[in-house]
Design goal:
Elements: H1 3-149, E1 152-155, E2 158-162, E3 171-174
Antiparallel strand pairs: 1-2, 2-3
């Protein structure tokens, strides 16, 4: 074989190698695209599964936390209802006591007002009565002053007064009423 044949053979071998390489390159590219597509599909599936797992886990924990919170809030609500009931009972008792005190205070005030009116009426009546008594006593006092200034003496069982017109010893007998 000669050189030309050898060169042709090398060219053919190179062409065949090039064709094999091109085919292998296409096949590798197809394998790469298939593997990539499978990997992306697997990743998407895994992502969905992980998302679902995380969502279920978070929901479960959140539900348990919320259930606990709801139970605590229910307990607080019940305690508040009990405290409100106790407060309302106490408030009712205080209101009843206040009403009782108000009634007693009103009664005492009415009694005091009545006693004040009675006292004022009594004072006015006594003032009028004593005023007329004082007027009478003033009259009697004037009479007694005149009698005190007069010259009166006892004449046995009777009184005698000295007058300017009497005859015997200038005393005259005073008649009793």
């Amino acid at each position: 074989m000669n050189i030309e044949e050898k060169l042709e053979q090398i060219d053919r071998l190179a062409g065949m190698a090039s064709a094999v390489l091109a085919r292998q390159n296409e096949q590798a590219r197809g394998d790469y695209l298939n593997i990539r597509q499978e990997l992306e599909s697997f990743m998407m599936q895994h992502k969905k599964e992980m998302g679902g797992f995380v969502e279920e886990t978070v929901k479960g924990r959140l539900d348990s936390v919320l259930d606990g919170y709801v139970a605590e809030m229910e307990e607080v609500r019940e305690k508040m209802a009990e405290q409100t009931k106790a407060f309302n009972t106490y408030l009712h008792q205080v209101n009843q006591t206040n009403r009782g005190i108000a009634v007693k205070l009103a009664t005492v005030t009415a009694v005091c007002a009545a006693l004040s009116v009675i006292t004022l009426v009594s004072a006015a009546w006594m003032s009028y009565g004593y005023g007329s008594d004082i007027a009478k006593k003033k009259e009697e006092l004037t009479t007694l002053e005149i009698i005190g200034k007069s010259d009166i003496v006892r004449c046995g069982d009777k009184l005698c007064a000295k007058t300017g017109k009497a005859g015997h010893n200038d005393y005259r007998t005073i008649n009793l009423r």
